[in-house]
Amino acid sequence: MLIVEWAGVIVLVLLLAVGVLVLRRALFIRAGGTIRLSVRTSISVPERGWSNGLGRFVGDDLRWYRIFSFALRPKLTLTRTGLVIVSRRSPAGQEAYSLPADWVILGCARPGRETVEIAMAETTVTGFLSWLESAPPGEVSTRLAAM
Fold first, then answer.
1. H/E run at residue 123
2. DSSP state, residue 99
3. Each residue of 76-134: pLDDT tens digit?
4. From CA 53, how far away is CA 47, in angstroms rounded?
5. Among the listed residues 81, 40, 84, 30, the one whose alpha carbon sits nearest the alpha carbon of residue 59
6. How far apart are the first and last CA of the chain?
7. What's the pLDDT score for residue 146?
8. Strand partners, 104
């Protein structure tokens, strides 16, 4: 009888975990302002270390959440202020296997932090750059460095 109870508990925990993941994804999609986005925070090993996720625009922030995570907080937040695009390229080498062919990789410099690379669909880049270049009234935008 003890085995049956433990099996029931395990099944219940698995169902709750799947339910949380499905609910989390449904909330992101319904809220709008969400894009598919891969991030590589450590650029020490070329062409490796990409993580899939969802990016969500919230005011002056782009919040990135891992797809396979129970965390309710973003893993990475890119603030529009001070963010500069320093490079743009297509996936090459090993990246061609982990990223879709029509995606673009943008190198982003952040003040006081290590450079981060983000990858998104070519069609999404235009919207991202529009968000990045738009500035509050009275502020001059100089966000695109060497594209």
1. helix 122-133
2. S
3. 999 888 889 999 999 988 888 888 889 999 999 988 888 889 999 999 999 899 888 88
4. 17
5. 81
6. 66
7. 47
8. 120
